[in-house]
């Protein structure tokens, strides 16, 4: 029982006992000296008032006891509805464990997907290299000897960006084969920017 209700309950009990004692004293007084009719009526009225007061106090005590019981029940319900600190800690640990497991699974799945993509890319690269090697193998070998039947007079030409042998021959009015022979180009497709070529009969 809370302290405030315990104190109120004790006060009511004291008042009730005092009322009973007062009634007993009145009764004793009446028994020792014969009262007059007025005194008797007054005393009887006092006794009736005391009895009524005692009844009211008894009702108040019952009401306080009911309220105290309701408060105890509410306090019990509140204690049951709130989680303890240890329960919260356990819930947080479980949540962290679950999150860590989810992150680990996601990382494993990501690594698996990346591995599959890298393997696919590697296979495609290998296939492209194989195709290129086959193309080079079937390509006719460049001539290792060059004819000397080109004009020994001509001009120098510096390869520009976007140039190829056909375009250079067109620009200078020379023959592609003469340019190949004069510059001993074993692979005419591999001229580079900045390279200087002799153009037989070129202008």
What does the secondary structure layout of this molecule look like, with pairings?
Elements: H1 3-32, H2 37-81, H3 85-138, E1 154-158, H4 165-172, H5 176-183, E2 196-200
Antiparallel strand pairs: 1-2
Helix pairs in contact: 1-2
Major sheet characteristics: 2 strands, antiparallel
Q: How many helices?
A: 5
SSE topology string: HHHEHHE
The order of strands across the largest sheet is 1-2
Which secondary-structure class do the elements indicate?
A: mainly alpha
Low-confidence stretches: 1-5
| Total E-strand runs | 2
- The rough form would be described as rod-shaped
* Range of helix content: over 70%
- Give the termini separation: 120 Å
How many structural units, i.e. domains? 3
Q: Strand share of the residues?
A: under 5%
Question: On the 0-100 scale, what is the average pLDDT?
Answer: 77
Please state the CA-atom Rg, rounded to the nearest Å.
59 Å
């Amino acid at each position: 029982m809370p302290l405030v209700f315990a104190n109120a309950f004790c006060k009511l009990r004291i008042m009730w006992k005092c009322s009973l004692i007062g009634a007993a004293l009145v009764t004793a007084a009446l028994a020792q000296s014969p009262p007059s009719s007025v005194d008797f009526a007054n005393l009887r009225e006092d006794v009736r008032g005391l009895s009524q007061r005692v009844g009211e106090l008894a009702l108040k005590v019952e009401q306080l006891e009911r309220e105290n019981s309701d408060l105890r029940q509410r306090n019990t319900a509140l204690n049951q509805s709130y989680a303890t600190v240890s329960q919260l800690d356990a819930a947080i640990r479980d949540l962290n464990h679950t999150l860590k497991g989810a992150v680990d699974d996601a990382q494993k799945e990501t690594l698996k997907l990346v591995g599959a993509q890298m393997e696919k890319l590697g296979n495609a690269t290998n296939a492209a290299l194989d195709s290129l090697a086959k193309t080079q193998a079937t390509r006719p070998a460049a001539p290792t000897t060059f004819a000397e039947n080109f004009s020994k007079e001509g001009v120098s030409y510096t390869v520009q960006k976007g140039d190829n042998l056909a375009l250079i021959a067109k620009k200078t009015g020379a023959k592609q084969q003469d340019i190949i022979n004069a510059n001993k180009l074993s692979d005419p497709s591999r001229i580079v920017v900045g390279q200087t070529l002799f153009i037989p009969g070129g202008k």
